[in-house]
Amino acid sequence: MIKKSVIVIGGGAAGFFAAINIAEQNPNLKVTILERGKEGLGKVKVSGGGRCNVTHAEFIPQELVQNYPRGEKELLGPFHQFMTGDTIDWFEKRGVELKIEDDGRMFPVSNSSQTIIDCFLNEAEKHQVEILYNHSVKALSQKGQTFKIETSQGDFLSDRVLIATGSNPKIWNILESLGHTISQPVPSLFTFNIKDKRIQDIPGVVAQNVEIRVLETNLWSEGPLLITHWGMSAPSILKLSAFGALELSKRNYNFQIEVNFIKQSFEDCFNTLKILKQDLAKKTVFKTTQFDLPKRLWHKLVLASNMDIETRWADLNKIQLETLANQLTKAIFKVDGKSTFKEEFVTAGGVNLKEINFKTFESKYVKGLYFAGEVIDVDAVTGGFNFQNAWTGAYIAAQNISK
Questions:
Q1: Suppose 348 and one of 188, 226, 263, 361 were both cysteines; which one would form an S-S bond, judging by CB atoms 3.0 to 4.6 Å apart?
Q2: Per-residue confidence band for 1, with pLDDT thresholds at 50, 70 and 90
Q3: How high is the mean pLDDT of the chain?
């Protein structure tokens, strides 16, 4: 008996996860992964600084979907089928124990992405998944119920195809030729380039809980803020970049942000400063850091408020108090460009979500064609959410392909 063939295009996280689950659920299928590179799982390797941020400890579907700027509505149903708890269970059954960190991110206990890579390679071998590297897909067509996949190393025929290539313009062009529409890809997770005296020479400083708004938009976020050599990063910035991906792209990454470093109103801050003027009268403002701010950041904001290092609290006039309150609660910074967040490049864009059946992750236009991961127009904030989308889509597609 000739085994029916399934081709998985893309040897990344979603591709391996899907291929293993297909082969495990139906040993009568011949499953082949076609990977264009000389090795796969590159994104897994660099994720989480080389530790692999497998998922996030959020166990309520309605809460989990809120981390997806694109895909929130569509992923609610799938997350009821396979989500965080199922991911943890899947890896633990295969000998990979995960741990939860304080911020909710989940990593292998080994703290090494190689643990996840080894798990995938071992499972693929165990279930006789064929992995073909250096196979770049050139064309995909369907005749009757059979797909023809043309690659740089020859042609393949298959009964079903799963696309798990991530953000791949060549594959998107192929999918357009099959009738799909592609939402224009733009960068999603990125940091902000800012040149400003107030953050110059203090890279590594973290303000733990800030609120940031993009002026002239409805975009805002809150959370930790990291000052870097080139500008600003950390969750508060990355959330803005994800939810504002399309808007910020339109502005060519030139815009202004307003940062509230202490999450207080201007009025409350001003009143507190007036009390400090009385209570700390003889002390210098520069040396008496307030509002739990990092000392180096406080120094910069004080100097930006028309004071010097010798200015005493008692000597502050109303204008100086107002200026300092503004720097603390309404500091305006000009963003001039973006930088990739570590090596974890994520894009918004991909196969239009209206063209996918989210009960099966099958194309509504091409029977037998399935999707998983970032090839579709779904992306998430940082913290393991993009991987969770990959696991969920891959698992549900695998269930339906293996029937």
A1: 188
A2: very low
A3: 96
Element (H, E) at 48: helix 42-50
Residues 176 and 201 occupy one common structural domain = no
User: Rounded mean pLDDT of 36-42?
Assistant: 95
φ, ψ (nearest 5 deg) of residue 402: -80, -5
Q: In terms of residue numbers, what domain contains 258?
A: 190-340
162 touches 18 (CB < 8 A): yes
The CATH number that applies at residue 91 is: 3.50.50.60
Q: Quick one: average pLDDT of 115-141?
A: 98
Q: Are residues 85 and 213 in the same domain?
A: no
Q: What's the structural domain count of the chain?
A: 2
Residues 306, 327, single domain; the answer is yes
Is 30 exposed, middle or buried (CB count within 10 Å of its CB: 0-12, 13-18, 19+)?
A: middle
pLDDT tens sequence across 297-350: 999 999 999 999 999 999 999 999 999 999 999 999 999 999 976 555 678 999
- Starting at the edge strand that comes first in sequence, how are the strands of the sheet with 369-371 ordered? 130-132, 29-34, 4-9, 160-163, 369-371, 362-363, 356-357
Give the whole-angstrom CA distance, residue 317 versus residue 314: 9
